[in-house]
Design brief:
Layout lengths: L9 H7 L16 E4 L5 E3 L1 H15 L7 E5 L5 H11 L2 E4 L20 E4 L6 H10 L3 E5 L10 E4 L5 H18 L20
Parallel strand pairs: 3-4, 3-5, 5-6, 6-7
Antiparallel strand pairs: 1-2
Length: about 200
Amino acid sequence: MTEAQFLISQEGYLKSGIHIGTKFKTKYMADFIYKTRPDGLSVLNLQKIDERIRIAANLLGKYKPEEILIVSRRENSWKSVKAFSKSTGTRVFAGRYPPGILTNPELKNFVEARVLLITDSWPDRNAIKDANKIGIPVIALCDTNNQSNYIDLVVPCNNKGKKSLGLFFWLLAREYLRNRGILDQKDELKESIDEFTEE
């Protein structure tokens, strides 16, 4: 893949640290790991990150904003997911996901969704369980230490870094709006990457 085919410049990806994994790696993520650095940190394959962001955006593009639910318990992503929600109209749970929100219509905060996106499969596992009970697809951001059971689409990336999450959700918002025909293919978001990134 040439530089021009990436969703953003290779330098833009590298500056955000989206490719920097953890020292721990699972067998689930082996296909996405490019190499292990001398300090023990795993490095994710940029091409595969870019490819999976496109697939995620194409999949989400088939759904109306109100049919999408994004769940993120990880505090580093709250600004990112809220900015994504603001620019696309999707619903988000930033913070602890109360079990049953997707499955129990008796709850006050019950949500009907047709697709779920989560930022980390471990802290967001209750949302994954609920999505599996009702049979909706799950897209998950997965670092080198994540497992991918019960996940339909793995998007490999650094799902802990503020800059990485900011860039991911900014790119996803842009591509989602392009796929929905709200933005032209050459148009950019009016919001900057900084507006998606925790300080």
